[in-house]
């Protein structure tokens, strides 16, 4: 997708102030319309432009320094979302992860994700887009865009709250729907898939869309994602009593359509660099793997300070966890518990030997992904700023190298940084397809070769063979301890591949939720093996605290008993003020007393 920055420039003008999330809630609708609006295709396009700015945010805009409610991570959600999972640890532990979320108490009405301003904008379009004499072929393209965004919005709300109200039209203060109970999840998700199918029908084919606008493939990608999520959520949350097979089948069909559309895994043949390079680009215009991306422009003053603050000073102050690092296979395709190639964990340098090349392209080995000499934060690459050293902390010692953009000019642009943000990429489709086919009982070696093994080929990892699935007693025991079930070996490996390939792309939380594996967050959070010679000024027992095996324990003092999971966390609570305004909503289970 190209030049989305054009969209933002069009948000000014006729809709003065309409780029504000709360605009449609604060002002009467008649302030943004007149008798002459809705009459042309340009009017419809102008209205939709603001929706792009709201839903396709990439690394966000400007300083990009706000947090996303209710999750609490930085608004550049794609690279930062994993900080509330078992993939990463922020300097200050996540209260969401530790069952300490209280946003429904401290936040007001419409907070914590229970926000309907954008939905009102979508429904306002749906109530008015046919008022003018616009060619139906033109009009329906923008209808497809709005239905796509509405499906996406509702999907995000269902992930947060389960049952949510379904609104077909703009509501007024006296509308009966404002005081109705939540719509059951099954009905909402059926409606989501229906309007998403309509969006696919109305949107133009890839290449036929206007520059900077979505096409059928983007909507098919969302359908693949939603189908897998809802299908597996229903299977593993069997207390819902809902069959997810139709959603899994929808995911399969959407994925198959995209797999036949000419996309491929990006590679130049450099197995030691291609994976990392994929996430450090100015443009994805010609990249065969990227289905949707956001472009930034310094010339248009439409950039973001992401590259500077991610690479230079660890603004989010987080590090990867040992649990993630241990999940990477060795280059013989075996887990570290089994492989004779594994050298041990006496140092980060040692444990990175003979491992899946994506490990060193995701996590910084000491001395790698160094900043330009003299640049702010340059001392944070040879050795990470663990506790006891100056600068923003990498609390685990595993500094993330994925998303590192070695472009000092871009760092200097500050809020006009131009590092492009991939939003949808083809590798996810392959992973969705493999998992959905397994869950439907349709997995074959041919499916594995089309998906997992295609992804592995980028880094020259051994192919996965159904007749020779490696054992992993350590991971199996983790499932038994934290999930109360042990997946079949091939599903375990599909899930491992997903975790590795999509690390630090904001998938892990959703995956744990849909697999009913949230209790994995109780696993002790550990960092690198601390080697005193590498950090001579750091004092053990004062600056850092270590496990019995010598691994850094970033939360030893603040969480001496570890993190706590409660099954109520599979859904977030509705703000108390909204329950007061509409007593028919009812709170999600086990949040009533908090």
Automatic annotation (TrEMBL):
Key words of the record: Cell outer membrane, Membrane, Signal
Annotated localization: Cell outer membrane
GO cellular component: cell outer membrane
Main location: membrane
Domain RagB/SusD: 305-591
Listed InterPro entries: SusD-like_N, SusD_RagB_dom, TPR-like_helical_dom_sf
PROSITE patterns, sorted: PROKAR_LIPOPROTEIN
Coiled coil found in the keyword field: no
Membership in a protein family: Belongs to the SusD family.
This protein's name: Starch-binding associating with outer membrane
Origin species: Sinomicrobium oceani
Lineage: Bacteria, Pseudomonadati, Bacteroidota, Flavobacteriia, Flavobacteriales
